[in-house]
Amino acid sequence: MTGSSSYLDVTADAYDAVAVLYAELFRDELDAVPLDRALFAAFAEFARTADAGPVAELGCGPGRITAHLRDLGLEVFGVDLSPVMIDLARRAYPDLRFEVGSMDALDLPDGTLGGVVSWYSIIHAPPQEVPAYFAEFRRVVAPGGHLLLGFFEAGDAPVTAFDHKVTTAYCWPIDDLAKLAGEAGFREIGRMLREPLEGERPLRHGRLLMRRGE
Ligand SMILES: C[S@@+](CC[C@H](N)C(=O)[O-])C[C@H]1O[C@@H](n2cnc3c(N)ncnc32)[C@H](O)[C@@H]1O
User: Fold this and answer.
1) pTM of this prediction?
2) Please, what is the angle between helix 64-71 and helix 34-50, to 10°?
3) What is the DSSP letter of 198?
4) Which domains does the chain have, with CATH numbers?
5) How far is the CA of 79 from the centre of ligand 1 (A)?
6) What are 147-178's pLDDT values in tens digits?
């Protein structure tokens, strides 16, 4: 693994501890968020059209997004740091493949994925580590493949740590993440900001849809 392994251990332990509760709370969350479903549908259409290989959901947690992408017609598998999350995902979706691993050091050959979805998983990486994550995504995604990022958005503030219920997390200005992913070799296709729903923490949600260049 690159960078300090201690924050990865802390993150894995923290998600192991809350995995059952997290899976319960978020199982049907997408039903209440039509804008996110629309974005996943768009990502799936881009990925199916490019036909550049399977898609990995990196930081898949209990696998609900992986399963949603499967339902949208993608060949997809999930990777997560937390062994308890992976155990839950395997039990909930026995037809899908889930592996324990860190998304900054993937056990995958170069250029073999048609896409990567990172849905609220880079939020726990210390900001100085994020370029290495994007470099790893760039390594495993084939030319013409796609990247979809979901994260908390910082608005006019710089990247900032906030009190996430599970473990330290960072919200990012969308332009800064787009710039870092761009420097790693992804070109922006589009972006979305959505306001928090009632009951969500008072942060906007950022989404970036990007394509790997040649
Ligand atoms: C907020 S949860 C999101 C889970 C899932 N994407 C979803 O939306 O339901 C963040 C997940 O990212 C995982 N994660 C954080 N850092 C990771 C890393 N470096 N490699 C793999 N998984 C990681 C955590 O273990 C956790 O399951």
Assistant:
1) 0.96
2) 60
3) T
4) 6-212 (3.40.50.150)
5) 8
6) 999 999 999 999 999 888 899 999 999 999 99
